[in-house]
C-alpha cells in the first residue's frame, strides 16, 4: 500500500490497473489500518478519477454476495451521501414512491457514516430490520418489487472498511463507489453526488459498468439529490450517450423552497417524516420526494418527461400505493424476524 499511497500523496492519478491492485490491498486483512486511512484521505484530497472509482467498484462488487432475482428492469436510487446538508432520508422515501408507481427497486443502503441518519437507521425506525439473508432479499424483490439491500450483509469484506470510514468521519471514495456496487444487475439507475464538477465522469463510470440508462444529479445547495432550492445539474446516460441538462423546481411545476425546509433529524424523526409524506402530507418535503421519484421514473424509462414523472410520483402517494409498499415491506420484515425467533 505504501507504493500507491506515495503516488496519490504526490497528487498523481492511479491508472485503472493500479487502482485495482490498491483496492485488493484495501480489502486485505494484512494491510495496516493506518495506511488505509492515509490512502483514503490522500485520495480524497487529490480528487478521485472515473478510472479509480470504476476500478474500486469492480473489485468491491467481485466480493459481494450473489443476488440474482428474476429478470426485471431494476432501478437503484441510492445517492453517494456525504453532502453535509442533513436532510431527511429523501431517496429512502422516494424508493417506496417509485415502487408504488410500478418500478422494480433494488436500493442499496447503509447505516449512518457521514450523515445524521443513514437509510438503514430510518428503515429500522419504520420497522424494517436488516437481518435478512440474501435469499430473503431476493424473495422480497420478487414478491413486492422493492427491497433494501443492507450493504454490510451484501459486502462482508466491507466490515473492516466500514469501521475505518467511521474513524475518518467524512466522505471518501467509498461514498462514490457505494451506489455502483449493487449486487443486482441494474439496467437503470438514478444517483446523486454533491460534486457538480464530477457528474460527467460519474455518468461515464455508469456507462463503463454497463448501465443502459441512468441519471446523475448534483443538486442545488450542494445536495446529492435533486433540490427545490435552485438549479440542479444532471447528466443523462442513454444507450451510451451522455447528455448534460439542468432544471429547477419551477420547470416541473413545483415551488422553490430553501434547504432549511427539508432538514432532517434523528432516525425516528426522519421515519415519522417518511410516513407523513406517504400519507399525503403536502409541503416542501413532499415536493422534494416527488421531484426525485419523478426523475427516477424518467431514468427507468417509465415516463417520457420528468414533469410527467412528478405527476406519476404524486399519484403513487395520493392513491395510497406508496404507503401500501411500505406496509408490505414492514410485514415481510416482521415475518422474517418471527421465523428467526422460532428457530
Structure, explained:
There is one protein chain. This protein is 49% helix and 11% strand. The chain contains 15 helices and 7 strands. The protein has a 7-stranded mixed beta sheet, sandwiched between helices. Helix 5 packs parallel to helix 12 and helix 13 crosses helix 14.
Which helices and strands occur, and which strands form pairs?
Elements: H1 2-9, H2 16-26, H3 33-46, H4 50-62, E1 74-76, H5 90-100, E2 104-109, H6 119-126, H7 134-144, E3 146-150, H8 151-154, H9 158-168, H10 173-177, E4 188-192, H11 199-208, E5 213-218, E6 232-238, E7 241-247, H12 267-278, H13 284-299, H14 306-318, H15 321-342
Parallel strand pairs: 1-2, 1-4, 2-3, 4-5
Antiparallel strand pairs: 5-6, 6-7
Helix pairs in contact: 1-3, 2-4, 3-9, 4-11, 5-12, 5-13, 5-14, 5-15, 6-12, 13-14
EC number: 2.4.2.18
InterPro entries: Anthranilate_Pribosyl_Tfrase, Glycosyl_Trfase_fam3, Glycosyl_Trfase_fam3_N_dom, Glycosyl_Trfase_fam3_N_dom_sf, Nuc_phospho_transferase
Pfam family, one: Glycos_trans_3N
